[in-house]
Design a protein that fits this description.
Mean pLDDT of chain B: 81
Largest interface: A-B, 30 and 25 residues
Largest sheet of chain B: none
Radius of gyration of chain B: 19 Å
Bound molecules: zinc ion
GO biological process, one term (chain B): GPI anchor biosynthetic process
Subcellular location (chain B): Endoplasmic reticulum membrane
Number of strands of chain A: 10
Strand order of the largest sheet of chain A: 5-4-6-2-7-8-3-9
Membrane topology (chain B): Multi-pass membrane protein
Number of helices of chain A: 39
Organism (chain B): Gasterosteus aculeatus aculeatus (three-spined stickleback)
Transmembrane segments (chain B): 12-31, 43-62, 105-127, 133-153, 174-192, 204-228
Mean pLDDT of chain A: 83
Structural class of chain B: mainly alpha
Number of helices of chain B: 9
Distance between the termini of chain B: 12 Å
Order of helices and strands of chain B: HHHHHHHHH
Low-confidence stretches of chain A: 534-545, 606-624, 961-967
Largest sheet of chain A: 8 strands, mixed
Strand content of chain B: under 5%
Helix content of chain B: over 70%
Oligomer: heterodimer
Low-confidence stretches of chain B: 66-86
Chain lengths: 967, 240
């Protein structure tokens, strides 16, 4: 079966995306789930152990606290409270910590340190998997057993003010709530005032049991200006005042005889030195946890706070409120909280926590009996039983107390080891799905590689021996073999595999596809093998042609080197450095090529003074010198200009990890005193974008483009990033919905015109001019969309992208006769570098989710995800689209198969690192940085693969026409 | 065929390599606290100075520069022929030599600036550690440009010829290509360890790059005569 290379490449890429999806499903562990589908109930709680007689006392311990106030300050870092600056940042809190009746801890948050997974961890006690980060974009109601649900079921009345993630996670759980959205990051006063304004009235009332406050302002300040900005101290003082107010109100309300209150101050995650979060560095992970209640002993001075896990708060709060612990919680009770209760109650609490953990352990591990913690718990339970027996007999001797202490210690040890065993489970991988996905991806990659000579040949078609493969005996044998392997693995493995849970039809399709691929692979390899020496022996001209220029060597070495560099965590963190470095070298190599071409041409075309080269074939310089000269100088100036552009762009956004804290131009531009400059820059960039893009459009699109770019500027002005000269800076900012929609109309208009031109050129007239115009119009629609989405300070990135594309196309790629493969690789490198120029990194924290709201009143999933993906991958997409446009509009002058070659190269360039990365990640799955560094990169890689598959489909439609126009 | 030249080349290279070695060892023996990482910049200057002095001396003694006069470029040929025609003798020769020296110095300085600019384009900080960057530029210049100046003279046309494909016209040209390429590739590769989070002393800017350049240069010194020796059958120079 003969297929064109672009069809072949897209087909392979799409299948690869499926394989990678299967791999991802296996790689990201499914959250730990108890087998019981219902939630924990009070009636299910175990009885108090009692040796000898049957357990008669199922008494539940008294709740410890009557009212609980949880004050969650987003991105509150541990050192903001406990550090040397804590005294000036939060004086009242610090006083309570040092002298009040309180307990303070450093609570370790697990990565990903992003708000929603952290809220889930705090309420369910589980450690949410990495995949929750992706789900952060839309947070459906939390269905798992959780504290809030338990509290509601027990009839507690809850009030919530703050981040509306809570309201979305727990709809209808709160008696009263007021959610504030966290997407307008530039606002750090309103969000908190919205919470505080309810406080006075709420604190006066008596009709609630749990009050949850989630303050977002600190996090927003961190995102804007980092943890050392001058805005931090006033904000923390404000938080301190809030705490003081709550504490005062609670103290004044406290009545004799009733249960005490509990005030919890905590952070969901910390803040890195740059002010972002999401990773696993110390400042991001360490959050303060301060528990204040008259039930605790008074402190006599500052002690070094103990380190606990963030999830430990869940069982502590549950037991403190007399609620059952949520089923899937892996936390353990904080023993300090119990210090003032009786020994019997202490043991009872620990027993309840241990029982819950052991149930979870039983459900999640097949050989739970071998776990040390489980055994310890059984022993402690038995000792507890005999202690109870003695206790109930009225024994009050010293011996009993000592024995009780021993049991307590046993319980604590059992809890610690069970909790750690459970946390470790979360790192378990579904190896079978991973291997299946990996094998599949590698088969496809090998097919892609083996097809290289054919795909890059003059015909650009690949002969896939599909029929012969499907009809051969090995195919059926392989099918049988794979199916039996599948059955064997799925029946033997105790742990659940995703691949096994698929329906039989799907599995059979996958097996058939995989064996077919294998047969195709073998037959293609067989075809290559005898052919190899044939070519070498018979056509020496061809083998001599196969010499690599320096540029080819660089392009190959760069691709291979980049793929290898993915194995080191630092190189993944600092991947932008690699691309900048390679791009720089590429520009220098191109510069050398240009120099050679023009200087040799000059010397060959006859220098008056003296010819340098011995070959003195002075062909007559027919071209007039006046015409050649400026072009030559422009061509010579293009690579240095590109280099300077890249150098400027790289100082626009500092990304990565090691040097991310360095000041960059982007922050400088965004500070309020440089607003005028930013406005001027944005206006200039938009003008330049118009100038660069409009050349190849019809006049309708030109007008639409101009109006659209004006709309972009007014959108930015409405949002408050830039200003009009006549507008005072104090004016109110809006969401800019109207302006953004105004731009959307023009984008759709331009895309429509472009599509219409394209369709007309393909169906009605085979007009190459019309077609190329249509293509460029679609491209300019994309540019307009991107310019709407980009932040104002990123507009120079777009501008430079267009400028470099124009110059390179005009003077380098065309003039130096680079073939389609070389041009594609260069486009890919530029695309990668621009991905980082716009401020992205391999960390989830740099994804700008606020673009999902451009032109929308509220969160709507599909457009928000689409816009966010488009904004994040704007660089690679723009360059890939430029490649399509450039190759297909250049086709008249070069070989007609350039588009096919380009598509094939793009597919190869994308699938080589993706496939290699899958293997690397599998090999490094127990690496320390697997969650914080390698997993986000895996998500980025797979997303990029998916997008490239989409671009390749676009390639197919472009390649269609030569066949239709020829026939 | 070129056994004599190859032997001369090998011995020159041995002397230059020895000078690099001496520049590292002698100050360490004489100056307290001198080390390659610790006092990197003095080491860098010592190596650049030693290589510069030794190569100028060696090439002057060997008399390599004449080929440039004989084979190439107009600019130098022109005054020479005139000086023969008018037989003005030694005075013109001196002026010519002085101007040549002056131009060499200017080229040297320009090349330092050029390397500095390239390194900044590669991402070195613009203002902070400008001294370090410039020192690296000086090292690169004395390892590469200085050699070009010695072999080819201050003549851009000849440089472009030598560094374009199939442009070498003598054993020394080929040798120049190899050493310069090795040095630059060494410096290029030397930049790779910088982003790694190992916190080693040699990851500090510009230690790894200058070490890479020096090691590349030494490799080039060894590789060039060896390569020429093993490929002497295939090598054909059009003008020789
Ligand atoms: Zn948060
Ligand atoms: Zn945040």
């Amino acid at each position: 079966m003969k297929v064109r290379s672009s069809v072949f490449a897209s087909f392979i890429l799409i299948l690869e995306a499926v394989g990678v999806a299967l791999f991802l499903r296996g790689f990201f562990p499914v959250p730990l789930k108890s087998s019981l589908s219902s939630k924990s109930k009070l009636s299910d709680l175990p009885a108090e152990p009692l040796a000898g007689s049957s357990p008669n006392s199922s008494r539940l311990p008294q709740p410890l606290f009557k009212r609980v106030v949880i004050m969650l300050v987003d991105a509150l870092r541990e050192d903001f409270v406990f550090g040397p600056n804590g005294r000036s940042y939060m004086p009242y809190t610090r006083h309570l910590v040092e002298r009040g009746s309180s307990h303070s801890f450093v609570a370790k948050a697990r990565p990903p340190t992003v708000t929603m997974p952290r809220i889930k961890a705090l309420t369910t006690g589980t450690i949410p998997g990495f995949i929750d980060v992706v789900m952060n974009l839309n947070s459906p109601a939390l269905l798992e057993d959780n504290l809030v649900w338990q509290a509601k079921a027990a009839g507690k009345r809850m009030v919530f003010y703050g981040d509306d993630t809570w309201v979305r996670l727990f709809p209808k759980h709160f008696m009263e709530h007021d959610g504030t959205t966290s997407f307008f990051v530039s606002d750090y006063t309103e969000v908190d005032n919205n919470v505080t304004r309810h406080l006075d009235s709420t604190l006066k009332r008596d009709d609630w049991d749990i009050l949850i406050l989630h303050y977002l302002g600190l996090d927003h300040i961190g995102h804007i200006s980092g943890p050392h900005s001058s805005l931090i101290q006033p904000k923390l003082l404000e938080m301190d005042d809030v705490l003081k107010k709550i504490h005062g109100a609670l103290v004044s309300k406290e009545a004799e005889g009733s249960l005490p209150y509990l005030l919890v101050l905590c952070g969901d995650h910390g803040m890195s030195e740059t002010g972002s979060h999401g990773g696993s560095s110390e400042p991001e992970v360490n959050t303060p946890l301060v528990l204040i209640s008259p039930a605790f002993k008074r402190k006599v001075g500052m002690e070094k706070p103990e380190v606990v896990e963030q999830v430990d708060l869940t069982p502590t709060l549950a037991l403190g409120l007399g609620l059952p612990i949520s089923q899937n919680s892996v936390g353990r009770l904080i023993p300090g909280v119990l210090e003032e209760t009786s020994l019997r109650d202490q043991l009872r609490f620990l027993h309840l926590n241990g029982h819950q953990l052991s149930c979870l352990l039983k459900d999640s591990t097949p050989d739970y009996e071998k776990e040390a913690g489980f055994e310890q718990f059984r022993m402690a339970e038995r000792a507890h039983g005999s202690w109870m027996k003695l206790f109930l007999e009225g024994n009050t001797s010293e011996v009993l107390t000592n024995m009780g202490r021993k049991v307590l210690k046993q319980y604590l040890e059992a809890l610690a080891s069970m909790s750690s065993a459970l946390s470790k489970q979360l790192g378990k991988y579904d190896m079978y799905s991973m291997v299946a996905g990996m094998v599949f991806v590698f088969q496809l990659l090998l097919v892609l590689l083996l097809a290289m000579p054919e795909a890059l040949s003059g015909e650009a078609t690949v002969d896939l021996p599909v029929l012969s493969a499907l009809l051969s005996l090995p195919f059926y044998l392989l099918c049988l073999l794979l199916a039996s392997v599948h059955v064997l693995v799925c029946t033997s493995a105790e742990s659940s595999c995703y691949f096994c849970s698929l329906s039989w039809g799907l599995v059979f399709a996958a097996v058939a596809l995989s064996s077919a691929m294998f047969c195709i692979l073998i037959s293609m390899a067989m075809r290559r093998l005898p052919l190899g020496p044939l070519i070498h022996g018979k056509s020496p001209s061809r083998s001599s042609e196969w010499s690599l220029s320096e540029l080819d060597v660089l392009l190959l070495a760069g691709t291979v080197g980049h793929t290898l560099s993915l194995a080191a965590s630092s190189f993944v963190e600092e991947e932008h450095q690699i691309w900048y470095f390679l791009l720089n070298t590429l520009c220098l190599a191109v510069f050398q090529d240009v120099c050679r071409k023009y200087f040799r041409e000059q010397s060959a075309s006859g220098d008056e003074e003296e010819p340098v080269l011995p070959s003195r074939d002075c062909h007559p310089s027919a071209r007039s010198r006046a015409e050649v000269l400026p072009e030559r100088w422009l061509a010579l100036a293009t690579p240095p200009f590109t280099l300077v552009c890249c150098r400027l762009l790289r100082s626009l956004n500092q990304t990565g990890v090691q040097w991310a804290h360095l000041p960059d131009v982007g922050h400088w531009l965004n500070s309020s005193e440089h607003r005028t400059l930013l406005s001027l820059l944005a206006a200039f960039c938009l003008f330049l974008i118009y100038f660069l893009v409009q050349r190849r459009c019809s006049w309708v699109s030109k007008v639409a483009l101009a109006l659209g770019l004006l709309g972009v500027y007014s959108y930015r002005a409405a949002v408050g990033n830039v200003g009009f000269p006549w507008q005072r800076s104090g004016s109110a900012t809006s969401k800019g919905t109207v302006e953004a929609r105004f731009v959307y109309v023009f984008i759709l208009g331009i895309l429509f015109t472009g599509t219409k031109d394209l369709l007309r050129s393909q169906i009605v007239t085979a007009d190459a001019e019309l077609k190329s115009r249509g293509l460029w119009e679609i491209y300019s629609g994309l540019v307009l969309l991107v310019s709407l989405l980009f932040r104002a300070h990123n507009l120079p990135v777009l501008c430079c992208c267009l400028l470099i594309q124009t110059l390179m196309a005009q003077f380098i790629w065309k003039r130096l006769h680079y073939d389609a493969a070389q041009t594609t690789i260069m486009h890919y490198w530029f695309g990668q570098a621009f991905f980082y120029f716009q401020g992205n990194s391999n960390n989830i924290a740099t994804v700008d989710i606020s673009v999902g709201f451009v032109g929308l009143e509220s969160y709507v999933e599909a457009p928000a995800v689409f816009l966010t993906a488009l904004n994040t991958y704007a660089g690679p997409l723009l360059w890939a689209c430029h490649l399509v446009c450039y190759l297909s509009s250049e086709r008249g002058r070069r070989s007609p198969v350039a588009v096919g070659h380009g598509c094939y190269c793009l597919a190869l360039l994308r699938s080589v690192p993706a496939a290699a990365y899958i293997v690397l990640v599998t090999a490094l799955r127990y690496h320390l940085f697997i969650w914080s560094v390698f997993s986000p990169k895996l998500l980025y890689e797979s997303m990029h693969l998916l997008l490239t598959a989409g671009v390749c489909l676009f390639f197919i439609t472009m390649e269609q026409s030569p066949g239709s126009s020829k026939s | 065929m070129w056994d004599h030249e190859i032997r001369a080349m090998a011995s020159t290279h041995a002397i230059i390599a020895a000078s690099v070695f001496m520049a590292t060892v002698v100050p360490a023996a004489l100056v307290r606290g001198f080390s390659v990482y610790g006092t990197h910049l003095p080491w860098l200057y010592a190596v650049s100075g030693a290589v510069a002095a030794v190569s100028v001396a060696a090439f002057w003694l060997l008399g390599i520069s004449p080929p440039t006069k004989k084979h190439t470029l107009g600019y130098k040929e022109f005054p020479k022929s005139r000086c023969q025609a008018f037989s003005k003798g030694s005075q013109d020769k001196l002026i010519y030599k002085l101007s040549r020296l002056f131009r060499s110095c200017v080229y040297f300085f320009l090349s330092c600036l050029f390397f500095h600019a390239v390194v900044v384009l590669y991402g070195a900080p613009l203002i902070e550690s400008a001294l370090e960057t410039f020192s690296l530029a000086v090292l690169l210049t004395s390892l590469t440009t200085l050699r070009c100046l010695c072999v080819l003279g201050p003549n851009v046309q000849a440089w472009i010829r030598v560094f374009s494909r199939h442009g070498a016209m003598s054993v020394w040209d080929t040798c120049l290509q190899i050493t310069v390429a090795c040095t630059l590739v060494g410096a290029w590769v030397g930049a790779f360890p910088i982003p790694l989070d190992w916190d080693r002393p040699w990851q500090v800017w510009p230690v790894s790059c200058s070490l890479g350049a020096t090691i590349g240069f030494l490799t080039g010194l060894v590789a060039a005569p060896a390569w020429i020796h093993y490929h002497r059958k295939q090598l054909t120079y059009k003008c020789k």
